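Intended use. Records such as the Endoribonuclease L-PSP/chorismate mutase-like domain-containing protein entry shown here are meant for training and evaluating sequence-to-structure methods. They are not intended to support clinical decisions.
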Amino acid sequence: MAGQIEAKLAELGITLPRPMQPIANYVPYVVTGHLAVISGQLPAVDGKVAVTGKLSWGVSVEQGQEAARLCFINLLVHLKAACMGDLDRVRRVVRLGGYIAAPAEFTQHAQVMNGASNLAVAVFGESGRHARTTIGVPSLPADAAVEVEGMFEIS
């Protein structure tokens, strides 16, 4: 029987994909105490980065928001594994960190990261409201436009 969070994902039309394997020497998540820390996730679909390039240099803010949303979906894949398959164990989205590939003159990082933040709230309700850092970077792995990492309180 699917839990409340799985039901919410279905209502939002989201099917969690197969997890993408790490592309370097790290693990996808660490659980310590009541925290699950999920490594940065790229906007991948079917194992391939779906949104590449830099914001304002060929990637629109709307495409960036979709990339951030995809990153959050990929965070959920690893979060589910960290919760032994039960996303109802998530008590709170504590923090999201967003990295936006963009030139120095780009200033709409926060709007891009809202793609992930808005989905966190849509999925987890009030406990999806979180602290956040969003920064611009010159490049990301695999030429991804966005990368998002997360920290979650779990039971």
